[in-house]
Amino acid sequence: MPATTKRGKVRKEALPSTIARSDPKAQETYAKTHDAAAEQYGDGERAHRTAFASLKRTHEKVGDHWQPKEGGAHGPSDDRAEKRGLNNLQGAGGVDARASKEHLMSLARELDVKGRSRMTKDELVEALMKANRRETSRASRR
User: What is the Cα–Cα distance from 5 to 25, expressed in whole angstroms?
Assistant: First the structure.
């Protein structure tokens, strides 16, 4: 099922739950990229991966939703995204691993990550990934 209608409106029921809880720009970015990828590759996993890759260039996952990157920054969110295509690098699960430590610390504060003040930047990324999974799971049960 296409993520947009013939008039370009986003079909919320066709979006993954984390994107459906996000701002309209995130929904539109995902939907339009998904639809274009589905035309080229078919409506399967590849179309979804392509749409998420596009979304991660402008948004980051915070808890159970996606929000625009700090300061309108665009670009790859981690080493895996920068290399593009299929590769064996570890992704950051929607966390903008290239953001400043201060930004990651503010997100950790927002998500109430315990022990954040003593964490390195890499540890913050891991803790945020875990907190995002927890919040997404919690939101899915509601």
Answer: 16
Given the structure tokens 């409506």, which residue do they identify?
43
| Any domain includes 1 | no
pTM score of the predicted model: 0.73
Domain that holds residue 38: 12-141
Contact (Cβ atoms closer than 8 angstroms) between residue 124 and residue 105: yes
Rounded-to-integer distance, Cα 125 and Cα 108, Å: 9
d(CA 121, CA 96): 11
| Cα–Cα dist 142/139, whole Å | 5
pLDDT digits (tens, 9 = 90+) for 51-69: 988 898 899 999 999 999 8
pLDDT band at 3 (very low <50, low <70, confident <90, very high): low
Mean of pLDDT values over 24-38: 92
Residue 4 falls inside a structural domain: no
Encoded tokens for 125: 């990324």
